[in-house]
Amino acid sequence: MDAAFSAEQDEIRRTLRELVTKRCGPDDVKVAVRTPRGYDPALWSALAGQLGLPGLALPEVYGGVGCTAAELVLGCEELGRALAPSPLLATAVLAAPLLLALGTEEQRAAHLPRIAAGELTAALAVPGTGLATALGLVGDNAGDWSGGGRAGGVQARVEGGAWRLYGQAEQVLDGHSAGLLVVAAHAGGFARSRTLLFLVREGATGMARTRQTSLDETRAQARLELRDVRAELLGDAEGDVPGALAAAGDVAATVLAAEAVGAADRALERTVEYVRRREQFGRAIGSFQAVKHRLAEVYVQVQAARSAAYYAAWAAGARAAGSGGQGAERAGALALAQGLDALRTAASEAVQLHGGIGFTWEHEAHLYFKRASGDELLFGPAHRLRARAAERAGLFAGDALREAV
Q1: In terms of C-beta density within 10 A (0-12 exposed, 13-18 middle, 19 or more buried), how is residue 328 classed?
Q2: Which end of the chain is more exposed for a tag (fewer CB within 10 A), N or C?
Q3: Close Cβ partners of 361 (under 8 Å, ≥ 6 residues apart)
Q4: Helix or strand or coil: residue 370?
Q5: Any idea what DSSP says for residue 158?
Q6: Alpha-carbon distance 152 to 213, whole Å?
Q7: Are 195 and 167 in contact (CB under 8 A)?
Q8: Structure pTM?
Q9: Is 19:13 a contact under the CB 8 Å cutoff?
Q10: How far are the Cα atoms of 69, 78, 282, 306 from residue 87, in angstroms, in the given order?
Q11: pLDDT tens string 85-131
Q12: How far is residue 103's CA from residue 114's CA, in Å, rounded to a whole number?
């Protein structure tokens, strides 16, 4: 494994940091999340048009840059530092890989170039609150989470030669504003029960989208109601949907881990800056040994989480390139667990060490606290991410357990 970044990768980080620092401060974030879309369209246009971020990991044949997960991780780490609200996660990390993996050539050609150019945003709609399960992060995604032939979830059936969807999906990231929805639905009844993915375009008859109030406003969520909505099957009915979702989930977890690391690092920086200025008993509180120890522990945890995120990105890139060996393992869930722990610790210390002002809900420290809590609700919690990774590695199987002992 080569842990050194190339000049191009360092340039991606530098350029993004300059842009985000200039256009996405705490006040800008608070204004953007309260707009109807939940993000700043001008910032999104800059990220897409000037930097090509939505197409960073897409093949060049579809208008992308053709980079690996490592470049995407570096970009999202910088966005995480500012908690920049954008449809990048929903569009480029969750929806686009599914289009690329399962879509027909016509579907790819119709949508991926527009996604890469930032002209089209997309979202993955999963029934209920099972996004982490659907992505294979906290459990086996080959089960009946999409509906299972019973009432609930989203059901798909063929009527008049066309697919129709009926049901409801909660917690759809950026689902209220996305131009294209990738909807997971149950089909086949009990006889041939399976989960399929469908494309639903903005404005489809019978679809209602409502933006939800969420703990973390920087991750806009929506409730999606489908009443006999006409849909287009993504790919064919024999595609490996659980496998494609699990592969997308590993990359998504890696990206989320990098975002958490960026947010934790920035929360730590802001806290260090504050304790250097804030005086008590005639001296800066940062000079007290107890405060130094607490911040040192946060620093170590953030650096460990960063290493885990970078390794997961390298592993994802190696697996995509077909290099085999250690690169074939999926380390995204473990990296995400470590990133969530680091962000939760950094945010908690930020609130505590800012004293009375840190406990006011309006203080920017709470933006980081809400991101930590919100991501755990959506993609965790951390102990379930670790438990699933241990299960997949066979750590608690009889032979593996005996060898470990």
Answers
A1: exposed
A2: C
A3: none
A4: helix
A5: E
A6: 22
A7: no
A8: 0.93
A9: no
A10: 17, 15, 47, 23
A11: 999 999 999 999 999 999 999 999 999 999 999 999 999 999 987 89
A12: 15
